[in-house]
Amino acid sequence: xxxxxxxxxxxxxxxxxxxxxxxxxxxxxxxxxxxxxxxxxxxxxxxxxxxxxxxxxxxxxxxxxxxxxxxxxxxxxxxxxxxxxxxxxxxxxxxxxxxxxxxxxxxxxxxxxxxxxxxxxxxxxxxxxxxxxxxxxxxxxxxxxxxxxxxxxxxxxxxxxxxxxxxxxxxxxxxxxxxxxxxxxxxxxxxxxx
Length: 194
Fold this sequence. Notes:
It is a single chain. With 194 residues, the protein is of the alpha/beta class. It is built from seven helices and eight strands, in the order αβαβαββαβααββαβ. It has an eight-stranded mixed β-sheet, with helices on both faces. The longest helix is centred in the middle third of the chain and has 11 residues, at 94-104.
């Protein structure tokens, strides 16, 4: 993910003045961007000590918590938007987190590396696991628990009763609407309760 360009595309999806929860917020740069450009408020959740410190240095409200514990500390409809950028592939209970997202927020926005991107397909055809900008780890040394595809997330969303609001791919900050399952290294979805 090209943080600045991709974050700008994501920020356009967030309504001005929204109350936002960013799951796996990293160093808080997206929340800071949303605060500065869209007038948003909210919180980030992050586990990594150094990233929590970076959030605090940016003036971003952050809670240190493991997302595998769920979102029980938040009430229903506590947020306008819940972000999960590059986090789903790290979670064991993906379906639960999708349900928790639409429980605590009106809109969910997720992104993840799209394993069906054409360079990844070529690597697999050659008998190798892909190592790319979106999937930068060797198969034996990755924090990813799973890989996903644009097309598979659409199926999962329907099975979970989620209504897709918007779906597209990203490549270095450039939005890809035509054949994103093949052409985009990163998948992006906006959804709500069905």
